[in-house]
Each structure stands twice: as structure tokens, then as C-alpha cells.
Amino acid sequence: MNLLLRNALVLDVVSGEYSEGDLRCADGRVVEAGPGLRAPSGVRVIDVAGGYVVPGLIDAHVHVTALTADLGALGAMSPSYVAAHSARIMGEMLGRGFTTVRDVSGADHGLADAQAEGLIRGPRLLFCGKGLSQTGGHADFRGRGEHLSDDHPCCAGVGRVADGVDAVRVAARDELRKGAHHIKVMASGGVASPTDRIDSTQYSMEELRAVVEEARAANRYVAAHAYTARAVNRALEAGVRSIEHGNLIDDHSVELFREHDAFLVPTLVTYWALKEEGRAFGLPEASWRKVDEVLEAGLVALERAARGGVRLAYGTDLLGGMHRHQNHEFRLRREVQEPIAVLRAATVGAAELAGMAGEIGTLEVGAHADLLVLDGDPLEDIGVLADPKHLRHVIQAGVVS
Q1: How many Å apart are CA 126 and CA 61, to the nearest integer?
Q2: How far apart are CA 14 and CA 84, in angstroms?
Q3: Is 140 a catalytic residue?
Q4: Among 6, 105, 104, which Cα is nearest to 58's?
Q5: Residue ranges of the Amidohydrolase-related domain (predicted)?
């Protein structure tokens, strides 16, 4: 698709400055920017009349297969049924301005290929397959009275159980075999799992290092679910590239993030949504009672990380009917960060984490033509990003959605 946007205010998210002019896209890429560009024949021209143009948003922590907040129920569902829901969820994400998402357990090569081939409408999908969990860990959804485990290797579900260095190597290699962009490990307890404590650490250092070694061998990286400083610090010392959540980090965590050039992906909105609506969308009562342990700590952790110079990416981690709150993360982060810092996390920051700097999250010539036209200035009012009603156009790969 060839497209020319005229009379735009184009944001450079690195400098935080706007430039007035035109932006031309061809073959899915940004090919030219500047004032008074010529429109070649056959190019669609849209006069945005002073509209604000920013890169397409990137959500670095989603679960597109999470049609319910009861994640343990997914494994017993028909894969075709889950895929149908995932297509709906992805289409709605694109409609909210997210042109790329990083799925951190649940999505697979089938969904990614379907999106890339245009079979389903949605963001570009960076997937990890199934997250790795120890027995009794954050992706082991058996209750205390259940013994048998079936990880449904070919079917829906967000995790697989693997114990011991050899087993986690095999599991990591298997997800990489299926095309994983990254590997997800559960390095602490969590809200959605029935038998672990949030303050637990999970996987030995030897197991964590084995997963990191396998990912690096394939030129990929590891993302770790972790809440407490103890769990976060162990994961960082093992070589994990991104920490998901990190609500209870300490000052030493900040030092380790900088030392290892790692990323923090806070997911503030999910705790807000789970507290408000979690039970209505399938979150078990025992999990709902865990939310308070991490809800208030999230903003404090974000402020500590931002002040300490930690690299940040935007994430939401929403489940079930709560996906619709995806943009509310902008408003929550604004409580401790300036709008440009939050927008950078959802563009250049997330692109760097995903290993796609210069490809997405930017409007530089040569980048994928993923961009949004807004009816207001998001640097003056974060509500422009927090409320999708301000989206005039969502453009992905040069195509107006």
C-alpha cells in the first residue's frame, strides 16, 4: 500500500519534538518525510490537517489467547475455539492503536503466521509459545488435590512444566524449534496460579542459567515473570533480559538492571482491572485475594526504576474481558512519569527490548509504516493515548486499518 499523509505534526519520540510536514509510505515502509512531498501516481493521499502522528504502539506484555482470567481453564478448551477468540482480541488491540504486541505465553506460530498472512486482523505478533514453569510454579494450574498433569503440547494453554536442568533445556529448545521470538520463565509465584506464594522464588539458578544459555545460543532472549526483589535479582544475575511485573524491586534490583542492561516491563493496569473486575471474568477467588499484595507496590516500583535509569517497556497483562483497558496503562504511569517517557516505553523502548530497534516504534525512514494519527497532542494530555476515541487513523504496514 502506498500512502502519503499531508500536513502532519510528526513526533520524533527520541527527541520529543514535532516536525511539520508530510510522510510517505510505500511497500509497508516509511520512505520519505518532509514538507511538500510529491505524491506519485496511484498513491492514496490523506490530509490530516495538523493531526498529531506518532509511531504505532507496542504492548510488550500481552496474552492474546487469554479469553478468560481463569488461565488454568485454557488447556481444556478446543484450540480452534481459543484461536477464534484470539483473532477477536487481536483485532480489538489493533483498533486501540497497538500495531505490534509481544505475547509472553499462550500465542504460537499459528497465530503469528495467520496475522502475517492477513488471515486475521491484528498487531504484529512476537510470541514465546508456552512459558516454562517448575512443578507447583506459576504455570502449574493443578489444585492441591490434583495429581495428573497434561501440558497439552499441541493445544491451548499458557505454560508447560519442566523440572531440572536437562528438562528445561529440552523445553526451551522445543519452543525455539517452533519459532519463539523469546523464552518465558516463571521465576516467582504469581496471582493466577493456585498453589504458589507471590513471595516465592522459582527455578534454581542452574535451571535459569540453562534457559538463558539456550536462548542466547539461538540469538534469542529470556523474559522472566518475577515480583519480589529476591526473585528479580536472581533472574537478572542469571542473565534474563526482561523482568515482567517487578512490583517489589529494591535499590539493588535497579543496580542489577543497569549492570545487565536489562528491561523492566511493569503491568500496572492488570492489578487495577483484576481488583475491579477479575472475579466477573473468571479469576478464582483465591487468586483475587492475592492482588492486594502487588497492587499498591507497582507505582512505587515504576518510580524507583525510572528514577534509577532502568530501561522500561510498556506492558498490560490483561485477561478476559479486561483487555479493553489496555490504553489505561498510559494514565496510570502518568502518575509518576512524564507523557513522553510513557510513550517512549510503548515505542522505542519496547522495540529495543524486542530486538527490533529502527524497525518498529519509530517513524524513521526505513521503518515499518506503523503509525497513528491523533486528534490531540499526547505530550500535553496523556488522555489522548489513554482513550482510543482520539485515534483518527490506525495505519499498519502502510495500510489504513
Answers
A1: 10
A2: 37
A3: no
A4: 104
A5: 52-398
CATH, residue 148: 3.20.20.140
Q: Is residue 336 part of a domain?
A: no
Q: Which amino acid is at 22?
A: D
In the residue annotation, 375 being an active-site residue is answered as no
The residue from 59, 108, 140, 317 that is catalytic is 317
Residues facing residue 10 across a β-bridge: 19, 53
CA 293, CA 300: separation in Å to the nearest integer?
Answer: 13
The mean pLDDT value for 220-234 works out to 96
Distance CA 313, CA 353 (A): 7
Q: Which of 184, 196, 290, 370 is catalytic?
A: 184
Look up residue 340 and give its amino acid: I
Could you give the angle at which helices 251-260 and 229-238 cross, rounded to 10 degrees? 20
- Name the strand (E) or helix (H) holding 311: strand 311-312
> Would residue 374 count as lying in a domain?
yes
| pLDDT tens per residue across span 120-174 | 999 999 999 999 999 877 767 556 676 666 666 566 778 899 999 999 999 999 9
**Whole-structure pTM value:** 0.94
